[in-house]
Amino acid sequence: MTGSDADADRLTGGRLNSALVKAVVSVHNRYVGRGPEKGQAFFRGNVVVVVMEDMLTKAEHTLIEAGNESIVMEMRRTFQATMKAELISEVERLTGCRVLAFMSDSHLHPDMAAELFVLDRHVPGETAIT
Fold this sequence. Notes:
Elements: H1 3-9, H2 13-32, E1 38-44, E2 47-53, H3 58-65, H4 69-95, E3 99-107, E4 112-119
Antiparallel strand pairs: 1-2, 2-4, 3-4
């Protein structure tokens, strides 16, 4: 398949957003044992963002209740670093673009996390932003 044929078969718009969030949630589920309860993805130009809610495990909630928020944040950062290569691979597969930068962080109150991917170009099929 040529590059233009591959681009023609790529998901766009809401279908791409849905596939992105499903892929990221699946990676989280494999590494952490459960994925987030809610998620949304969106992109503009060459930036993809996935926001997830209700991420924390029962064990993490227990640690937070015992005053160990810093331990939970460190564990989350470690998981995010461990998942990085697979998350990048999934975004590259779905968008057809190379990921130049990946940023990730978690928030405990409320229980949310965000994954941000900066791509080497705008998502195919979308209008470039100037």
